[in-house]
Amino acid sequence: MVQGSWPTYGLALREVRCSSIVHILDTNMNLTAESHRIPLSDGNSIPLLGLGTYGDPRTTPKGTAHDCVKLAIDVGYRHFDGALVYFNEHEVGQAIREKIADGTVRREDIFYCGKLWNTFHPPELVRPALERTLKALKLDYVDLYIIELPMAFKPGNAFYPKDQDGNYIYHHTDLCATWEALEACKDAGLVKSLGVSNFNRRQLELLLNKPGLKHKPVSNQVECHPYFTQPKLLEYCRQHDIVIVGYCPIGSSRDASWVNLKCPPLLDDEVLVSIGKKYNKSSAQVALRFNIQRGVVVIPKSFNPERIKHNFQIFDFSLTEEEMKAIEALNKNIRFVELLMWSDHPEYPFHDEY
Q1: How far apart are CA 186 and CA 144, in angstroms?
Q2: Cys-Cys crosslink for 334: which of 141, 147, 155, 263, Cβ 3.0 to 4.6 Å?
Q3: What's the pLDDT band for 262 if we cut at 50, 70, 90?
Q4: What is the side-by-side strand order in the sheet with 243-247?
Q5: Is 121 labelled as part of a ligand binding site?
Q6: Which of 290, 276, 281, 284 is nearest to 331 (CA)?
Q7: Distances from the Cα of 149 to the Cαs of 61, 91, 205, 258, 296, in angstroms?
Q8: pLDDT for 57-111, tens place per residue?
Q9: Where, in this chain's numbering, is substrate bound (predicted)?
Q10: Residue 86 a catalytic site member
Q11: b or e along 77-116 (b: 16 or more beta carbons within 10 Å of the residue's beta carbon)?
Q12: Pairing mode, if any, of strands 191-197 and 219-223?
């Protein structure tokens, strides 16, 4: 624990878990650009705002991730969300190491989240996959390592294995066996905290109820924004001291190959725009503030220098309880990211209500 106020926050969170925790963060700790970490159940902590580092490798110029991560560290970001399957961890790691070398940050100031891809679920492949991430980053450990999706694919060199007819080749999924291999990685000091991503309640319960569970998942990274507020999953995770990390917190690109275009553009919403005018903020800043104010970590992705700066400017205003409720009421229960191409996988997570 680095800040004395965190235990108070954790206590308050437990006390009011069954009621509204709107404003819990503001009443128990002052979120600032310099200090916006919240505790994880294993004693570590996570910054509430991070930078997503995904960029389409086919269209993103080489060096973009490197330059943007260096800029982000100068702006004040300390949390970076990456993955082996983003094909740019070497750039992200180089940027982090350069900012450590020039004295801007220390390694312990930085929070890096890496992800275990679907083709590495068999237990014997878990540590080698994490070691590939560490080798690309040229770091000794990652702060958080998460199962990216609860769906195993056929192991091998192809990240998206397909048969001759173009169908994805799946693999037997044993989330508990994969988790045990991750626990061994934590025990070996390769990762500080363990989490999951895109897990529904049933899949979380599978891990939480696993006989001999050594390390609980501290986080679940899922889509979360004013049009998809995740009230039931958020409540379930709060009850089990699991932090929600929200991806697409300001909506998504309109890439029809993986984005549900039936979901209207979030940032055009009149409620978000009008609240923003009151504080001289954009709808994007209001959407980000909404989530961090209810304890949801946000990781907006941007490789635009101005937007990277813009998205960080959310610590100099606070939403009222009425405004929080108005934004909560925008929930349409519509996902931007449906992953329908894998909806026939036995562990596809989005068939369940939450």
Answers
A1: 10
A2: 263
A3: confident
A4: 51-52, 79-81, 111-116, 142-147, 191-197, 219-223, 243-247, 297-298
A5: no
A6: 290
A7: 27, 24, 15, 15, 19
A8: 889 999 999 999 999 999 999 999 999 999 999 999 999 999 999 999 999 999 9
A9: 171
A10: yes
A11: bbbbbbbbbbbbbebbbbbbeebbeeeeeeeeebbbbbbb
A12: parallel
Please report which residue ranges of the chain form alpha helices under DSSP H: 5-15, 24-28, 64-75, 89-101, 123-137, 175-187, 201-208, 231-239, 270-279, 283-293, 305-312, 321-328
Estimate the crossing angle of helix 321-328 against helix 283-293, to 10 degrees.
Answer: 100
**pLDDT beyond 50 at 158:** yes
Residue 274 · residue 207 · CB < 8 Å: no
Q: Of the listed 86, 112, 170, 348, which one is catalytic?
A: 86
Whole-angstrom distance, CA of residue 270 vs CA of residue 64: 33
Collapsing DSSP to helix, strand or coil, 38 comes out as strand
- Burial label for 227, CB within 10 Å (0-12, 13-18, 19+), is buried
Residue 53, classed as helix, strand or coil, is coil
- At 280 the pLDDT is 98
Amino acid letter, residue 69: V
Query: CA-based angle 226:228:229, to the nearest 5?
Result: 70
Closest CA to 333 of 225, 238, 208: 225
Residues 51, 112: Cα–Cα separation, whole Å: 10
pLDDT per position as a tens digit, 14-71: 333 333 333 445 434 589 999 999 999 999 999 999 999 999 888 999 999 999 999 9
What residues pair up with 166 in beta bridges, in sequence order? none
Collapsing DSSP to helix, strand or coil, 98 comes out as helix
In DSSP terms, which residues pair with 246 in a beta bridge? 222, 298
- Helix or strand or coil: residue 204? helix
Give residue-wise pLDDT tens across range 102-149. Answer: 999 999 999 999 999 999 999 999 999 999 999 999 999 999 999 999
